[in-house]
What does this fold into?
Amino acid sequence: MMKMLSDDEARHLFHVARVARLGCVVRGEPYVVPINYIFEDSTIYSHSLPGMKIDAMRAKSRVCLQVEQVESEFNWQSVMVFGDFEEIRTSSEREKVLRKLLARFPFLTPVESTIAHDANAPESVVYRIVIDRTSGVAEEQFGKVPYENEYRTEGVELLSEGIQ
It folds into this structure.
């Protein structure tokens, strides 16, 4: 049964998820990429090397992020948040955010790996997305899924008939 998630349930999913899909607009087209992040209050914090998504967010600050938790096709949660990109430029705040990101993700990401191996690599862009709208939905079916056994049995019979 489909249900809308409360704001607290939606925020909880953002707290426990480790990867979000960031949606922005590049040359008039939707562009979606996975990012690691930390979530505090109503803000997402992340970082990236300069590139397509950073250029897109600098040009048009309105973005969305989506996370999900999927146990099966009949038991899942999905949350989307909307907000505005803000680049963090002060060194003390950048350092604070990067320390928190590395505490949550202790292994070097490709961004840090590039910087660690290439002294000429561009400086990482540290940013936040200030969330102003949240939307979450869940599919939750407990017990027997209607027709589940019939479909699986039918598929097994068809497969075994084709082998003989």
About this structure: The domain at 2-163 is CATH 2.30.110.10 (Pnp Oxidase; Chain A). The chain has five helices and eight strands.
